[in-house]
Amino acid sequence: MIAKLKGRLDSTGLDHAIIDVGGVGYLVGASSRTLAALGPVGEAVTVHTEMLVSEDSIRLVGFARAEERDWFRLLTSVQGVGSRVALAILSALEPAELHRSVATGDKAMIARANGVGPKLAQRIANELKDKIGAVPTPAGGVGGGFAAVSGGGHSADAISALQNLGFKPAEASSAVAAAEGELGEDASLDALVRLALRKAAK
After folding, report:
1. Among 2, 79, 82, 200, which residue's beta carbon has the most beta carbons within 10 A?
2. In 117-188, where does DSSP find H-type helix?
3. Integer Cα distance of 144 and 138 in angstroms
4. Is 171 exposed, middle or buried, given 0-12, 13-18 or 19+ CB atoms closer than 10 A?
5. CA–CA separation, 90 and 31 (whole Å)
């Protein structure tokens, strides 16, 4: 199992990169987001990888960040989502955006990816909602350290989720604070968002 490659970026294509590791060129499939993050050809790069083994091929898929690889694994666990569709979703959405979309059941956001229709987007949201506790997401949405998706300290993600649904920042903050006060700080993100939505809608 190849979990990571560290070498020099030899070249890139529309959906792949070639990483030179000690004179051996590894062809790695990748999302457009990962390809953009790799930097210029000739520079040192590190990619997290997933090895896909089938009866007639062995392929590597690469990711600029470990959490993208985690999401790739989750997405491909859903019936109807192959590696190509999973990479299309990761090209269209940041991991934090994907997390919020799944947590709030926002199938329209998931369906922004090429090759993902409304039915498949709904299936992804339904099947992954109970699994996303295993996936780390950036605290506050972008940058910074990482906080576990399940268990405590979800107010920033919940506020962001409500804002994505059209609520003003003040409304979202107030609703999340009220929900957190009722559920406690150890409430899951899903429970926090659901109760905050009910409170914001009143």
Report:
1. 200
2. 118-128, 155-164, 169-183
3. 6
4. middle
5. 6
Please report the sign of the dihedral spanned by the C-alpha atoms of residue 103, residue 104, residue 110, residue 111: positive
Sign of the C-alpha dihedral computed for residues 149, 146, 195 and 118 taken in this order: negative
Q: How far apart are the first and last CA of the chain?
A: 52
Provide the residue ranges of all domains of the chain, joining segments of one domain with +. 4-63, 66-134, 154-201
pLDDT one-digit tens code per residue, 115-162: 899 999 999 998 888 777 544 444 444 333 333 333 335 777 777 777
CATH number, span 4-63: 2.40.50.140
Backbone φ and ψ for 39, nearest 5 degrees, come out as 90, -170
CATH of segment(s) 66-134: 1.10.150.20
- CA dist., res. 92 & res. 90, Å (int): 5
